[in-house]
Amino acid sequence: MQWEVVIGLETHVQLQTHSKQFSGASTTYGAAPNTQACEVSIALPGVLPVLNKKAVECAIKFGLAIDAEIASRSVFSRKNYFYPDLPKGYQISQFELPVVGKGKLMIQVPASKNAEAYEKLVNITRAHLEEDAGKSVHGAVEGMSGIDLNRAGTPLLEIVTEPDMRSAAEAVAYAKKLHELVQWIGICDGNMQEGSFRCDVNVSVRPKGSDTLGTRREIKNLNSFKFMQQAIEYETQWQIETLEDGGKIQQATVLFNPDSGETRAMRSKEEANDYRYFPDPDLLPLAVTEADKQRVRADMPELPQVLQARFVSEYQLSSYDASTLTAAKSVADYFVTVVDAGAEPKQAANWVMGALSAKLNAEEKAITDSPVAAVQLAALLKRIADHTISNNAAKQVFEGLWAGEGDVDAIIEAKGLKQVSDTGAIEAIIAEVLAANQAMVDEYKAGKEKAFNALVGQCMKASKGKANPAQVNELLKKMLG
Predict the structure, then answer these.
(1) Is the pLDDT of residue 402 over 90?
(2) What single-letter DSSP state applies at residue 72?
(3) Domains detected in the chain
């Protein structure tokens, strides 16, 4: 029997606010345990939650970015369950009336051994505001577990998809696209190691061609795209083998062990009615007006797909180049600055995606930490364009900029890289080369084109690489008759 995997994602995005979802306590990462666990976060008697306006604006931003329905009225509910890291005994979330409704996200699934690259539309069911729970800490004291409530109350936006994905590759492509988007619009720092972007993956399998969904198991808290790929692939194979052996899939929450590469059941999966949701009596319904949406929209950056189209139409870049340059906002901003500083767009794109990217990757630096500023790269490209230096010399200048040896012109002068463009000087070099290489001249005149390239090489060697290659070609042809 052939099987089909069905995947949906629930992603918890920590919102970039200085204070918590319902209190003024700090959200700074790395503080000593329980130093940011305020009275509201642990629901001491007599305290009241107050909604964080910045968190609401972040949710609206996301809704606008995915062309979603944004509710004019949404409600906060209490999600009741007992767990050691939830001292209140409930989590404030949204259930029946979320702030962000149905939206969509177009993803690009990369090519694989069995398929070419393709685009796919993933439908987003909802995105709702909620607060985070605390964290169980094991092993801080030998033989004991502790509770750190610093995260309790941290603002989250939970983004839920339809079960639209049919492979681990599609799920990872969606997660990466979402990861890029929330950073692009400035609502999340995207730091997966610190828990700012966590994915729960619902996986089920069914006979190929069937419209009936199988029983799903939820893989919790995946904080790496690599682990997501491995977890889905293992879970899919485990479910198929279980069914083919005559077994049944029990709905469950499972964990992924990166060391073994396996998933294991943690507990049976709760249903919504297990949480006994009811409207939070301490919080009024959230009202979002058209004016609110317009105000947030005015503060949003140009979205990746819009910027990509502009790069194609305004700068005449290929779709591939435009897509690569808009994969991250920091890269797009750097490229735009290079062009605005006077560089030719295609040449700027080639250098940003080529030499700069290679150097950043080799040293594991982000483009925001590049030793070569965008205006410096633009100055370098202008010196190539006005024939002050050759492309080969430009590589040496780039290395000098990276090492902090000064500005572009100073490095060119110090290294003696200025290109010879004086016609008389180049003609003199060519004349010497022709006189010393009569055999090559004869071969060229006998119709051997390779001899011409060899003569060009000799001219460049004689000029120590400083002669303008285009002029060398033009003058050499002229002098050979």
Answers:
(1) yes
(2) S
(3) 3-291 (no CATH), 302-415 (no CATH), 423-480 (1.10.10.410)
